[in-house]
Amino acid sequence: MSWVYLFFAGLLEIAWAIGLKASDGFSRPLISAATIAAILASLGLLGLAMRTLPMGTAYAVWSGIGIIGTTLIGVWFFGEPASIARLGCIALIAVGIVGLKLLHP
User: Fold this and answer.
1) Cα 72 from Cα 61, distance rounded (Å)
2) Residue 92: HSE in the Cβ half-sphere, 13 Å Cα cutoff
3) Which segments cross the bilayer (predicted)?
């Protein structure tokens, strides 16, 4: 169950990172409130995952999911650069996440 918590915590990390951009410096109240709720939910789920997963593994996977998702959404929806080198580095993060999952089933 910890990996499920961690997966959803990572998805919420993506949501709040996008929310930070969309809130325009917390000047949009509804988006700001949703962003804060996503932050709290993400951290709560991360905490639940850390009950049984090693802290370093859980944190690395959580941040990796956020990095990968936020980068891809940035490229697809916000026109951020998608160089081969940048996407290659993101792919290395994905490989690391898979490796951590295989080491800690």
Assistant:
1) 16
2) 6
3) 27-47, 59-78, 84-103
Give CA 30 to chain center in angstroms: 21
Cα–Cα distance, 2 to 10 (Å, whole number): 12
User: By C-alpha distance, which of 56, 70, 48, 63 is closest to 4?
Assistant: 48
pLDDT at 33: 98
Residue pair 56/30 in contact by the 8 Å Cβ criterion: no
Confidence of residue 58 (pLDDT cuts 50, 70, 90): very high
Structure tokens at 7: 């997966």
Query: What angle do helix axes 55-78 and 29-49 make, rounded to 10 degrees?
Result: 150
C-beta separation of 35 from 23 below 8 A: yes
Pick from 103, 2, 101: nearest CA to 51: 2
Q: What is the residue range of 34's domain?
A: 2-103
Q: What is the pTM of this model?
A: 0.86
